[in-house]
Write a structure and sequence with these properties.
Elements: E1 3-4, H1 6-18, E2 25-32, E3 38-45, E4 53-57, E5 60-64, H2 66-72, E6 75-82, E7 85-92
Parallel strand pairs: 1-6, 2-5
Antiparallel strand pairs: 2-3, 4-5, 6-7
Length: 93
């Protein structure tokens, strides 16, 4: 199951506060990019979609679509702030 680093939890909470999205959660979906390469995409949503895995860690709720759930099983989500944006990284646990 996906786990968060302390930095990722703080970053996600900050993004939710900044977006004034209290009560929302981060949703990760696996989709093809415009050039056809697979990628993970994030958005803030109010509720899970059918089939989403719900991950709760460090006070953060994340919804993973089935493909993202498979790709992120046993992974660690980290974040590194860069001024006005955040870079997320996926690492092995």
């Amino acid at each position: 199951m996906l786990k968060l680093t302390d930095r990722a939890a703080v970053a996600i909470k900050g993004m939710l506060e900044e977006a004034d999205a209290e009560g929302a959660a981060l949703r990760v979906s696996a989709e093809l990019d415009e050039d056809g390469t697979p990628g993970l995409h994030i958005s803030f949503v109010g509720e899970a979609e059918d089939g989403d895995e719900i991950v709760e860690d460090q006070g953060v709720t994340i919804y993973l679509d089935p493909s993202a759930s498979d790709a992120l099983d046993d992974k660690l989500l980290d974040a590194e702030p860069h001024g006005d944006h955040v870079h997320f990284e996926i690492e092995d646990q």
